[in-house]
Amino acid sequence: MYISHVSLTDFRSYRQVDLELVPGTTVFAGPNGVGKTNIAEALGYLASLSSHRVSNDAPLIYFGADQALVRARVHRGDQAVGLELEITAGKANRARINRANTVRARDILGILRTVLFAPEDLALVKGDPSERRRYLDDVLVALQPHHAATRSDYDRVLKQRNALLKSARASGRLSSSHESTLSVWDEHLVTAGSKLLRGRLEVLGALEGHIADAYDGLTDGSKPATARYMSTVGGAMDDEQDQGQPGNGTSGTPRSPLMDLDEGELHAAFLRSLALQRRKELDRGLTLVGPHRDELVLGLGTAPAKGYASHGETWSLALSLRLAVYRALCEDDSRPGSKPILILDDVFAELDVSRRRKLAAVVADAEQVIVTAAVVEDVPDELNGRILTVGPGTVSA
Q1: pLDDT band for position 153 (cuts 50, 70, 90)
Q2: I need a labelling partner for 33 at 20 to 30 A (CA). Which of 127, 374, 375, 395 fits?
Q3: Is-contact 324 340, C-beta < 8 A?
Q4: Cα angle vertex 43, ends 374, 227, to 5°?
Q5: Which architecture characterizes domain 131-304 according to CATH?
Q6: Could you report the per-residue pLDDT of 381-390, keeping only the tens digit for each?
Q7: What are the boundaries of each domain within the chain?
Q8: d(CA 188, CA 387)
Q9: Cα distances (Å, whole numbers) of residue 278 to 110, 123, 171, 183, 191
C-alpha cells in the first residue's frame, strides 16, 4: 500500500500544500517546529480518525479557519482510491470516497492503513492504563472497522449510565424509577461492553507473539516482553492469579481466564460483575466495571515494565508494540501491495545507533515508509530515499 498524492488545506500550519509521493522511503527533513509532524499526523488521522498528539479536533484546524481538508490517493494492490476528509471542530466530520457524495467519516476506515511510530508512544509503557486501552481499541478498529461503532456505543452508554448513578447518589436513595432505568442501561452497557471486550481479547491474541518477537529483535533478548489483559469483568477469576504481575520469563505471561470465553459468556460474566458492584457504584456514583477500567499489563522478564524498565527498554517495548501492529495488519491482509504504510515521526533522534539500525532493518520491507527528521543523518542508511525539505508552511524537493 502507498499514497501517491496528499493535499492539506487549512490543516495545522498549512494553508495549502500538495505533495506527490512514491513507494519506498520519503524523508521530510527540517528544523523542529516547521510542520514535519503535521504531515505525519494528517496521514495517521486519515487512516484512524484520531491524532497521536491531541484528543480533540480543534487544534488540527488552521487558526481562524472553519474546517480542515485532508485528501489522498491511496493505492492498494491494483486498486486506487481517492479519499477526502473534512474536519470541523465541534461537528461531525464528513468524508468522500472517489469524489462521491459525503458519507460518515468512519465509513472510510479500513481503506488506508498506517502504523505510526512517535515519541508519544512512550506513554504506552509509562502512561496511564487509558493509553494502553486506546492502543488495543485502535488496533481493533484497524483490523475490524465496524468496531468503531462498538467503541462509540460503549462510550455513549457509559456516559448515560454514569449520569443516572450520579442522580441516584444525589437523591440519597435508589428509587423504583432509578432501579428500572438502571437495569435498562445495564443491558445496553453489557451488550456493547462484551463486544468491545471480546474484540480486545482477540486483538491481544493476535499481537502478543509479535510483541515478544519484536522486542527480542530490538534487544539482546535477555528479558522477554509479555502482555496480559486484566479485566474488571470476572475480576474474581483474575484475582486467583498473580494480580497482574508478568510471567517469570520462562513460562510466559499467565493467561487471562477471559481469553477462553465467547461473547455470550462475557455478557453473562459482565452482568454478574455489575450485580456484585451495585452497592459500591451507587455509593460513588460511578460505573466501576467494564472495559473502561481494564488494563493491559506489560512486562519485561519477571518485572512489570511500568516503573521498572530503563529508558532504553521503554523505547524498545514501545517500538515493539507498534511493530506488532504492523505484523498483525500484514497477516490480516497478505495480498501483494497491501502492507500498511509506516510513518516514523521523529523517532530516530530518540534512539541510539544500534536501535536505529535494528528498527530500520525491520521496517525496510514496507512498501512505503514516511520519515520525519530534524537531522537527516539520524536516518539509517537502510532507509535511504527521497528527501523533502520542510519549512514554515512549505515543502520542497
Answers
A1: very high
A2: 127
A3: no
A4: 85
A5: Up-down Bundle (1.20)
A6: 889 899 999 9
A7: 2-113+340-396, 131-304
A8: 51
A9: 39, 33, 16, 11, 18
The DSSP code for 109 is B
Q: For the residues of 111-134, what is the DSSP string, one character each?
A: TB-EEEE-GGGGHHHHS-HHHHHH
Most confident listed range (11-15, 357-361, 393-397): 11-15
Q: Between β-strands 341-345 and 114-117, what pairing exists: parallel, antiparallel or unpaired?
A: parallel
What distances in angstroms separate CA 113 from CA 47, 71, 340, 360, one per listed residue?
Answer: 6, 15, 5, 20
Binned at pLDDT 50, 70 and 90, residue 238 comes out as: very low
Q: Domain 2-113+340-396 is of which CATH architecture? A: 3-Layer(aba) Sandwich (3.40)
- Angstrom distances, CA of residue 17 to CA of 11, 79, 312, 376, 396: 9, 25, 36, 22, 10
The kind and range of the H/E element at 95 are strand 94-97
- Dist. CA 40–CA 48, nearest whole Å: 12
Q: Which three cell numbers stand for residue 174?
A: 435508589
C-alpha 96/C-alpha 101 separation (Å) is 6
Helix (H) / strand (E) containing 355? helix 353-363
Output b/e per residue, 178-201; b: 16+ Cβ within 10 A. beebbeebbebbbbbbbbbbbbbb
Taking only the tens place, the pLDDT of each residue in 332-374 is: 999 999 999 999 999 998 888 888 998 998 888 899 999 999 9
Among 277, 56, 279, 35, which residue's Cα sits nearest to residue 169?
279
pLDDT in tens, 90-148: 899 999 999 999 999 999 999 999 999 999 999 999 999 999 999 999 999 999 999 99
